[in-house]
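User: Can you help me understand a structure? I only have the sequence.
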Amino acid sequence: MSTLGVRQPESSAPYSARPSTAEYNALTEAAKQSVYLRDICDDLGLTSSRPTIVYNDNQAALKIANSNPGEHHPRSKHYAVKLAYLRELIANGHVELRHHPSRDMPADALTKASGRTRVIEQLKLLGMFDSPVSIKGRVEERT
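Assistant: Let's start by predicting it. Here is the structure, written out as tokens:
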């Protein structure tokens, strides 16, 4: 099974002081990208009736996204429009949000500093480590 990831450069991402807000912004952007990619697939005749699954490792962001309108904290009013849009995508069956523990997130190899062993584990999750190239930069011949 292949995985498609879309990542916005950090330099163009809006600053968020609260981790849950940053994660929620990322959820919304991923959902927007999934709608765009679904439209392309529809144009190619690859229509799916199932929702696009968006994984996130932040429980607070998922709780906010799955809460009812009016339940979110007053400090979250600044992203109420994004919240309404994401809830609409969920209600219409276009997107399904699921929790996925951070330790099992393959994309962390590309976004977080980790030790050599952890990077190898994450690259294997991405299907990128079955290679004759050593992580130290040498090329080894397979026997």
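Now, to help you interpret it: The chain has a mean pLDDT of 77. Residues 19-100 form one domain. Let me know which part you'd like to focus on.
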